[in-house]
C-alpha cells in the first residue's frame, strides 16, 4: 500500500510538472502573438519619412521595415497610431508587441523596455525662420531669451530640456507639442524661436512651410531601434534575426534610400 501511494504521488508530481511547463510554453507563444497571427506595432504617424499617413494607409521607413519583419515571422502587421509618449508604456505593459517611431535608444528608455539592434542613425537638427537672428547652433541660448519647440517625449524634448551643464537649454525655455508639425506651426506663427527635431522630418516640414531653414550641423546624433517588452525575450530574438537578415540582404538600405536621398 505504501509503495502504491508513492507511485501515485510520483505520477501526480510528474503530471503537475508537465502541466506547468505546458502553461509556460503557452504564455510564450502568446507573447510572440503566433496564436493571433499578428504583430502589433505602435507608432506615431506624424514623423515623415519614418512614419506618416498616405491617405488612409500608413507609409514610411519604419512601416515598410516592420512589414518585412512581420513577413519573416509569418505574421500580419497591425499598426496602432498613438501619441509618441504612450509608446514605451504600451510596449512595456504588453499592449503593443513593439514600438517603431524613429525611436532613439536611451539609457532611460532601456530601464522600461529592451531594444533591437539599430537599423538607422538619426540626427537631431534645428529649424528656424530664414530671417531669424539665429544663424548657427552656437547662437542658441538657454538664458531665457529664446523659446524652443519640441515634440513631447522625444529625444529632442529630453535633451533640450536638460540643464546647460548637460548641453540643454533648461526646462523653462521649452514648449512641448504633441506632434512635430504642431511645433513647426508654432515656429511659423512666432510662438517659438526654434524647433529641435530629427533631420529627415525637418526637411519635410521646411519643404512644406515657406520661410524656414535648417541650421548647418548636427545638434545630436543617435541610433534608432525597435522597442520590445522586457518580458518578451523570444520576440526580441526573432525580431533581431529578421532585422539582421533584412540588413544583410540590402532590404533595409533599399527602404531607407527610397525615402531619403543620398544627396
The proportion of residues forming helix, as a percent range, comes to 25-40%
Report the mean per-residue pLDDT as an integer. 88
Distance between the termini: 85 Å
**Oligomeric state of shown chains:** single chain
Rg to the nearest angstrom? 23 Å
Query: Strand fraction band?
Result: 15-25%
Structural class: alpha/beta
User: Topology as H/E string?
Assistant: HEEEEHEHEHEEEHEHEHEEEHH
Outline the low-pLDDT stretches. Answer: 4-31
Label the overall shape. globular
Largest sheet: 6 strands, mixed
- Annotation field: number of helices: 9
Number of DSSP E strands = 14
Give a written overview of the molecule.
The strands form 3 sheets. Strands 8, 9, 10, 11, 12 and 13 form a 6-stranded mixed beta sheet that branches. The model is unreliable at 4-31 (pLDDT under 50). This protein is of the alpha/beta class and 263 residues long. The protein is built from 9 helices and 14 strands.
Descriptive terms for the model:
alpha/beta, 9 helices, about 260 residues, six-stranded mixed sheet, five-stranded mixed sheet
Amino acid at each position: 500500500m505504501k509503495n502504491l501511494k508513492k507511485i501515485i504521488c510520483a505520477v501526480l508530481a510528474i503530471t503537475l510538472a508537465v502541466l506547468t511547463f505546458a502553461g509556460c510554453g503557452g504564455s510564450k507563444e502568446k507573447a510572440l502573438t503566433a496564436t493571433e497571427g499578428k504583430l502589433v506595432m505602435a507608432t506615431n504617424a506624424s514623423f515623415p519619412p519614418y512614419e506618416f499617413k498616405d491617405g488612409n494607409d500608413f507609409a514610411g521607413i519604419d512601416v515598410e521595415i516592420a512589414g518585412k519583419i512581420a513577413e519573416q515571422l509569418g505574421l500580419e502587421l497591425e499598426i496602432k497610431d498613438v501619441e509618441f509618449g504612450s509608446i514605451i508604456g504600451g510596449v512595456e505593459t504588453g499592449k503593443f508587441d513593439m514600438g517603431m517611431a524613429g525611436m532613439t535608444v536611451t539609457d532611460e528608455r532601456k530601464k522600461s523596455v529592451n531594444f533591437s539592434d539599430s537599423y538607422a542613425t538619426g540626427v537631431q537638427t534645428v529649424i528656424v525662420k530664414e530671417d531669424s537672428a539665429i544663424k548657427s547652433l552656437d547662437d542658441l541660448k538657454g538664458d531665457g531669451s529664446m523659446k524652443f519647440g519640441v515634440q513631447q517625449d522625444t529625444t529632442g524634448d529630453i535633451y533640450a530640456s536638460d540643464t546647460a551643464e548637460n548641453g540643454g537649454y533648461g526646462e523653462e525655455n521649452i514648449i512641448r507639442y504633441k506632434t512635430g508639425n504642431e511645433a513647426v506651426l508654432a515656429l511659423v506663427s512666432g510662438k517659438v524661436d526654434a524647433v529641435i527635431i530629427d533631420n529627415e522630418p525637418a526637411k519635410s516640414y521646411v519643404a512644406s512651410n515657406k520661410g524656414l531653414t535648417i541650421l548647418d550641423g548636427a545638434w545630436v546624433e543617435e541610433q534608432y531601434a525597435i522597442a520590445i517588452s522586457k518580458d518578451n525575450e523570444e520576440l526580441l530574438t526573432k525580431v533581431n534575426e529578421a532585422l539582421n537578415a533584412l540588413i544583410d540582404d540590402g532590404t533595409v538600405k533599399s527602404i531607407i534610400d527610397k525615402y531619403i536621398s543620398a544627396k
